[in-house]
Amino acid sequence: TGYGAVYFAANMLATRKEDYKGKVCLVSGSGNVAQYAIEKLIEFGAKPVTCSDSNGYIYDEEGFTTEKLAFLMELKNVKRGRVSEYAEKFKSAKYIPVDPKLDYNPLWNHKASCAFPCTLR
Hints:
The chain is an alpha/beta fold. Helices cover 36% and strands 21% of the residues. It is built from four helices and six strands, in the order H-E-H-E-E-E-H-H-E-E. The protein has helices at residues 2-14, 32-43, 66-78, 84-89, and strands at residues 24-28, 47-48, 50-53, 56-60, 93-97, 114-117. Helix 2 links the parallel strand 1 and strand 2. Helix 1 (2-14) packs parallel to helix 2 (32-43) and helix 2 packs antiparallel against helix 3 (66-78). It is globular and about 40 Å long.
């Protein structure tokens, strides 16, 4: 479904004679759907800059690379870690913890061309 969301949006962009190249993209979640959305976005030349878990989210202004995505996949799928650990490894990333006073996710406040909600919350 991560691939599907990205392919669907690619087709929508194509109706405007656009593609993902250089577009900043927001992704929520860090499970399978988010991971594979990030993977496909990278493949299409986009710049995914966020992912999240129930404790908070990371914003990586430089964007995900295949190396960074591999780390995230190992972190979440094998080690069962938190996205905050990504920000500890990659200094280009900032970790923003959940603020219980907010009734929205500030991940969506970042400027971007495309948004991919890939989580239950």
